[in-house]
Design goal:
Number of strands: 0
Radius of gyration: 20 Å
Strand content: under 5%
Largest sheet: none
Low-confidence stretches: none
Number of helices: 11
Length: 285
């Protein structure tokens, strides 16, 4: 079994313990790369790659003989392929490719603050979060004797639907942005600088809603395997949700600074969950 054991931990000797060891390697690599290059998008580049690797480590240890683990791994691999492709076509793996919010973060934070941010939240915090929200596969490994049941099938269906929804939302946004860039380059008028059509007429961030839905229902596999509603692995999707809720205001502030009409959109549409009033902002961000 792949096992590095940098530090002793309760999962030593398990395949997901090996995944934690690998996570520590990724943390070190991301931190050093950021310090050397003064670029901080390294975690973004690994975000879609790590969960498939972690699940494959567990599935391989079982000889790919666990139907539940195989199903979980297949879903996460599909998630990873889609997200990696989407990140790549946006230039995320190219030189200088980074999230559009990073320039604002660098402007607002002093160099030493960014270094502290990298040493705490970015490299270790984000990489450990990725490992954590993938952890239900460990519960499935601990309960391999439990047969597939209706909750597994429900989780798989909801995960697949959310994956499709996120794919559609990202594609709709991509088409809009490409057309906007073409119009600007051609000197043509752009009626509205932000997208409110397609799935975005039901939520300001339908892609984020679908992303969270996938990892919430991924935890259902742990419940199906163990019959326990709550375990330590639940913390992963809970912290992931908090992370998304904490990061979206910055993106919306950027949109609002560019497009004052965005305030009307904020007041009319929920932040993530469609057909609710959750996250509507009266008067703008």
């Amino acid at each position: 079994m792949f096992d590095i054991n940098f530090i002793p931990h309760p999962l030593v000797g398990t395949p997901y313990g090996a995944a934690l060891d690998l996570c520590i390697v990724f943390i070190i690599c991301c931190y050093i790369s950021a310090v050397v290059t003064r670029r901080y998008e390294w975690v973004d580049r690994l975000w879609s790659v790590c969960p498939p690797i972690y699940c494959l480590l567990v599935a391989a240890e079982t000889g790919f003989e666990s139907p539940r683990i195989n199903l979980m791994t297949a879903l996460v691999v599909l998630w990873g392929v889609r997200l990696t492709y989407n990140f790549a076509i946006k230039g995320g793996y190219g030189k200088g490719g980074e999230d559009y919010r990073w320039p604002v973060v660098r402007e607002r934070m002093k160099p030493w603050q960014i270094q502290v941010f990298n040493a705490t939240f970015l490299a270790p915090g984000q990489m450990l979060l990725i490992w954590w929200f993938t952890a239900p596969v460990h519960v499935a490994w601990e309960n391999m004797a439990a047969p597939l049941n209706w909750l597994d099938y429900t989780a798989a269906i909801v995960f697949a639907l959310a994956l499709i929804g996120e794919t559609v939302a990202d594609r709709q946004m991509s088409v809009f942005q490409e057309d906007k860039k073409r119009r600007i380059a051609a000197g043509e008028p752009v009626e509205q600088g932000f997208f409110t059509g397609g799935l975005y007429q039901y939520s300001r961030h339908p892609n984020y809603f679908c992303e969270l839905a996938m990892w919430w229902c991924f935890y259902w596999f742990a419940i199906a395997a163990s019959d326990d509603i709550f375990s330590w692995t639940a913390g992963g999707f809970i912290v992931l949700t908090a992370s998304f809720l904490g990061s979206t205001p910055l993106g919306e502030q950027i949109s609002l600074s560019k497009y004052p009409d965005y305030a009307k959109y904020q007041a009319e549409k929920p932040r993530m969950i469609p057909f609710t009033g959750l996250g509507k902002i009266r008067g703008g961000a």
